[in-house]
Amino acid sequence: MSVLFTSISENNPVKSGDAEALIEPLGLTIDPSESDDFQTLLAAVHDCAEGVAALPDYQPIPDQLKYPRENIRRPSKEEQVFGQAWAHRFLIRGKEGGVLTGKSVSLKDVIAVAGVPQLLGSDIIPSWTPSTDATVVTRLLEAGADIHGTSTCENHCHSTSSYTSAQGTIENPHATGYSAGGSTSGGAALVAAELVDITIGGDQGGSIRVPASFCGCVGLKPTFGRVPFTGVSSGDSLNDHVGPLARTTMEVATCLDTISGYDGIDDRSLGSSKPGSTDFATSIKGTERLDGLRIGILKEGFEHDAVSSSVRHSVLTAAKKFEDLGATIEEISLPDHLHGPAIWTIQQRMAGAQTLLGQNTGRRGLYMTEMEQARLPWTDEGFQRAFPSTKNVIINGLYLMSRFPGLYGKTANIGRQLSDKYQALFEKFDAIVMPTTPVVAPKHGKRGQPVESLKPSMGLTINTAIFNVTGHPALSIPIGFAPAKEDDQIMLPVGMQIVGGLWQEEKVLRVGHVWETHYDWKKMQFTTDQN
């Protein structure tokens, strides 16, 4: 439908030749006989845009009288831990009497908190300050949690390492000089060190599960849409997940009960349950056995070349213990699992570039317009400050969109096919297990040339990114320690990933809970390299 107009404003900036200039880079032209009409139509849409831009935005208004923000500040040197784990310190006290009363929480620094500057691990632009609270923030406070601050994330969340944030490096709480994982790096370190009970992270390729694995936490990427993404900075909306990290599966389950359910805003969560209707914590509480459950050991998850022999041995040893708990285990194969990283890469690069450039559209939800106004338009000065991973997303995305038109849609279709193939497996198996990460935490990389800067993250998401594509719930639990690659005297946590059918978080949490209540992972050390 054409734009309706009665007259063009006197100050309208559209001039002759503007329509032609817009389509010239596409190799397209306008017939000279139509040029004046398209100029008029372009001028009309400009006036329309000016009118919409002048309207007030529509952001949810948080109750800051009920939940005041106390002492918002950048942490002092004395307050900082593990390098730069905190982004901002503050306190918001939760309502008394909820299921999370007495629990301390940090939030990944991509989750909106009204009045708290957000850094996104970047210095491309100055920090911006949201005027609203993310849905998960409101729900945590209503459940009684006290929020103690935002925790540092990696640069624009484009890394699974923990040295890319413009605010500084995050140290692994088990060994200085080693990665805490990313991009929920600061929060995982805080949880592992018992400085907070729970952190809320974002996961678009493994950004909850990778730091959980490296730091020795329990981290859950729920089913796509289980938890509303409202008020969380997006990358690719098909891969967007938000979820909890804690020290126990029970804490993760209690938090998931609190934050899940459609909020009337985010269309990703249209298929989720009614808020407050789940009871994962109660359903797994007191469960001591896994009798009758069938657990698959995914061959491709273990036999990938990137998986170290010590991690393979550790996770296989831990998985075999399910038999002692009553479950039946069986090796299974899904060769298409190996396509996951490539499918994820295409989706993330194309949609990620559009998001960074302010061109992503098509979802019903809360748009972070204040952030977009601060970030756009890009300047070369800002681009030069970006970490190589962010530059690479823009360059890759623009290339793919220009050279492979229609490829994003095809990857979305193939991703749905992968999801269907996994769902077929979950008709026979209650859960599938594999290593969360192929190695224990590596040493920090360093900022240098692009390939050098990106190398420490390469290959870390071979078993995690596919489940962002398929949407299946995936839980990482710590199952012991294995030696660092560089020094066999340094022992670092190993994570086992437990994956379930869509909307089957209860099974995933039950499997993790029963394992951790029978075995003390902190006393389990795997020092051999046998297969």
Automatic annotation (TrEMBL):
<dbReference type="GO" id="GO:0003824">
    <property type="term" value="F:catalytic activity"/>
</dbReference>
<feature type="domain" description="Amidase">
    <location>
        <begin position="94"/>
        <end position="509"/>
    </location>
</feature>
<dbReference type="InterPro" id="IPR023631">
    <property type="entry name" value="Amidase_dom"/>
</dbReference>
<dbReference type="Pfam" id="PF01425">
    <property type="entry name" value="Amidase"/>
</dbReference>
<protein>
    <recommendedName>
        <fullName>Amidase domain-containing protein</fullName>
    </recommendedName>
</protein>
<dbReference type="InterPro" id="IPR000120">
    <property type="entry name" value="Amidase"/>
</dbReference>
<dbReference type="InterPro" id="IPR036928">
    <property type="entry name" value="AS_sf"/>
</dbReference>
